[in-house]
Design goal:
Length: 117
């Protein structure tokens, strides 16, 4: 039975089988937690899995002066030097934030993007 083309009768049959299986107790054991071991709220949570990866991206545009028109954007980053300073500020704030997290965070270097293409 293909999963991308399921009719109403097949959906109802599969849903009913799943609910009946849960009611009868099939699939109630978790491989991560042995039988007989209950959750203890006084214990700290177990951190499993990979670290959260953060990829900061700074998009900006250097304004070029044009006669008889408004040419400056509203943002505070108007030059490459300002973009470099902003990227350093972002990196510093993210490293401070990741040091305070209760889980592992991997912060990648800031990518500066000047164009959309």
């Amino acid at each position: 039975m293909p999963y991308n083309n399921i009719n109403r009768r097949e959906f109802v049959a599969l849903t009913t089988a799943g609910v009946a299986g849960q009611i009868l107790g099939f699939g109630t054991s978790s491989p991560a937690q042995p039988k007989g071991q209950d959750w203890d709220p006084s214990k700290p949570p177990v951190c499993t899995g990979k670290a959260l990866t953060v990829q900061p991206v700074l998009m900006y545009r250097v304004a070029e002066k044009r006669e008889a028109t408004s040419w400056k954007s509203w943002g505070g980053v108007q030059s490459d030097e300002a973009a470099g300073a902003e990227a350093q500020r972002i990196s510093k704030e993210l490293s401070e934030l990741s040091s305070r997290c209760e889980f592992s965070v991997k912060v990648l270097p800031v990518i500066k993007i000047k164009s959309t293409s």
